[in-house]
Amino acid sequence: MNSKWIGIFAAGSLMLTACGNGGSQAGNPGASEADVAKVANMPAEISFYMWSMSQSEFDYIAEQAKKKFPNYTLKAVPSTGSGGPTIDALVTADSMPDLFVGRGVATPDLQKSGLLYDIGDLMTKYKFDASRLDPLAFEQMKRETGGIIAGIPLSGTNGGLLHYNKDLFDKFGVPYPKDGMTWDDVYEIAKLMTRVEGGIQYRGFSDRWMETFFTQNPFGEPILSLTEDKAAVNSDKWRKIGENWKRFYTIPGLKFDSTTINKDLDWKEFIKGNSAMTTFVSRNFMDWNFAWDIVSMPTYKELPGIARLADFRSVYITSSSKNKDAAFQVAAWLASDDMQSKLTADTGLYPVLKNEEIKSKYMMNDPLYKGKNIKAASYNKVGPGMPGRKPGLTNVKAENMFMKELQKAVVENKDWNTVLRSAEEVINKAIQSEKAK
């Protein structure tokens, strides 16, 4: 590993030296106390690849871990999206972290790099009680991994939230959004809020749109065929989803080019105070200089009460880890009742447990959401999750290819038949190229 990433490793590490290791092994009733104590007390260095974890979440976990694992050193490795190394770079350097925190969409990358590891034996060895967790979490993981359990679920999915800038609504004299809105309702509000004033282009809505509208669509519509090596994007359902998205970006007055349509630049307009509403926020970017609140995420009128599908975050133990037992202890502890309760109340992490009492603590102590409409998080129900593909099918970065073609619907005003047909061709060509390797 080059010196750049060594420096990042050092900066992200926290030595867990506080005294005490109270409590029984998380989620392992009946596990040998001697076996658990031996692993939990031995010196170990456990690194996290934070593909889907914020620095503040890691810091919170590391602080809590001081009591549980006094002899462990936790290290945080930022993902590519946060300026960190790629998975390929880490694998090449033989420096892949012990734990990969991510969502199912990352599974193809882990599979391709040979990093998925079946933790069934570890679960048996330490008598991990999986019955406490939402069964959908493991079902979804097995669909995505080809049948194995490769990690311990960390967080579940709330019903979805729409954040809105109260200052902008007050400024323009438009009533605030409310719980239970459809996408049609939000679109009408977005039109009212889109305007130029004082030389500033205000948007009614901005978002990390690829995820919100497409990869996490509530219909469960896949980009790749579930049973064949081909694209599945040229369909009436995708056309409907695309038309819903496009109308928000073609409101009169808005103009986009190949740069400004970028999903990461787009949602940051909300952070700047230039956009009225968004469904996507990152806890790394919530130092907002305006008043805001939340309501339930909008739904399609065809799917009342369901705004999104289950999308679990899990802590995967990588095949390259040299400390699999210790890494498992950390992953299992994060799914314990005690830690899930703390994470739920303090950090905004939605629990992955069945326990209703813990669910009721959602964001209870979170200073960011103090005084906000927190009940909105449970207004909608969550769908069953994206379906998994048949094992053995070819995986390509179809999401990126699809996104590139989708942008043309706005930037070049291409019709949907052309956009979806082009996306289908590009993805199919990539699949055939991958199969030919």
From TrEMBL:
Coiled coil start-end: none
Membrane-crossing residue ranges in chain numbering: none
Alphabetical keyword list: Cell membrane, Lipoprotein, Membrane, Palmitate, Signal
Source organism superkingdom: Bacteria
A matching Pfam family: SBP_bac_8
Protein name: Extracellular solute-binding protein
UniProt organism field: Paenibacillus solanacearum
Highest classification ranks of the organism: Bacteria, Bacillati, Bacillota, Bacilli, Bacillales
